[in-house]
Amino acid sequence: AQTVTQSQPEMSVQEAETVTLSCTYDTSESDYYLFWYKQPPSRQMILVIRQEAYKQQNATENRFSVNFQKAAKSFSLKISDSQLGDAAMYFCAYRSVKETSGSRLTFGEGTQLTVNP
Amino acid sequence: DTGVSQNPRHKITKRGQNVTFRCDPISEHNRLYWYRQTLGQGPEFLTYFQNEAQLEKSRLLSDRFSAERPKGSFSTLEIQRTEQGDSAMYLCASSSYRSPNTGELFFGEGSRLTVL
After folding, report:
1. Is A84 strand, coil or helix?
2. A33 contacts in chain B (CB < 8 Å)
3. Are strands A3-5 and B44-50 parallel, antiparallel or unpaired?
4. What are the pLDDT digits (tens) for B13-50?
5. What burial class does residue A75 get, using C-beta atoms within 10 Å of its C-beta: 0-12 exposed, 13-18 middle, 19+ buried?
6. N or C of chain B: less Cβ packing under 10 Å?
7. Contact A31, A41 (CB under 8 A)
8. Does A107 reach chain B within 8 Å, measured CB to CB?
């Protein structure tokens, strides 16, 4: 079974600064998806960024980018120019490409990000 | 609003009572998922449907839990004889099997259960 570990329960960053959230995972599969989801307080979880394991290029979405190290099974999220609206719980998630898994996600424990003005 | 809708948003019940949550997925999505999230933790998979078929159930889904998706549209999650340990946020998500299959799940805002 796949596992996802986020070793930073809490992180803080000053507004306009850069912060990196860590995630490691364990799998025996060679192809899979990795995601970062954001969960603001009392609001639904939304997708921040997605990475396909077969792609060597790191995904980027505006101020959000990942550092995907497949051999190390590491998938960190970098938030540049942090904004107050970035404050939320961030979850790293794994999804197998095998249809037998039904596309379900395996989540890490989450990292609570605080953005200080 | 064409997102995933969950009702009720918050339910407070006494131990031993039955509760039911409803999820309306995005209309063109044929896959529907239920997750449970306790405070400060990541969501844990409970079960998922493809159309009306329940294809997988987690070991977390005890006999007191039952989920249905009778017409392949909305789904209900019922918890019988609730226990205090059932207190959690119950999240529903949906996705489309049809391409482009991005692997992304779309989540609702959740139904928070408090068992007294």
Report:
1. helix
2. 103
3. unpaired
4. 999 999 999 999 998 888 999 999 998 889 999 999 98
5. buried
6. N
7. no
8. yes
